[in-house]
Amino acid sequence: MSAVMVQEDQDSLLALRAHDIHKHFDGVAALSGARLDVREGEIHALLGENGAGKSTLIKVLTGVHQPDQGSLERDAEPLEIRTVRDAQRAGVVALYQETSIIPTISVAENILLGERTPAQEGL
Ligand SMILES: Nc1ncnc2c1ncn2[C@@H]1O[C@H](COP(=O)(O)OP(=O)(O)OP(=O)(O)O)[C@@H](O)[C@H]1O
Ligand SMILES: [Mg+2]
What we know:
Layout: H1 3-12, E1 14-25, E2 28-39, H2 54-61, E3 69-74, E4 77-79, H3 84-89, H4 107-111
The structure holds adenosine-5'-triphosphate and magnesium ion.
């Protein structure tokens, strides 16, 4: 198998790709050419010092922020994410820490916040 074929096989399994993402806030470069490839079944950790841009990258992936430059792909297809709903529809969702959860509803309802639950769908 050639190296090119191996690369194609790997790309075909790409669930999510962020390519050359740039994001500035009032002259502060939060992201300068950030890249992330996530393949089906992979778990990644974003590590970096305070202010490194971890949260900003997650917010770009989940439609909270629009990047100044760069592109996203989902399953090797171009992905336009303009809103949090766009990201949700593409299956890209952030689950935040306990400071952002609603304590009076279940874990499942917190995860599905804003969506109809299976019970509401009659399933
Ligand atoms: N909404 C915003 N307005 C202005 N500047 C911002 C905004 N969000 C992030 N920044 C700046 O962008 C840079 C990256 O911040 P970000 O929150 O992405 O870093 P982080 O890696 O998540 O940091 P931490 O480890 O503290 O959570 C920082 O300089 C931060 O001050
Ligand atoms: Mg952060």
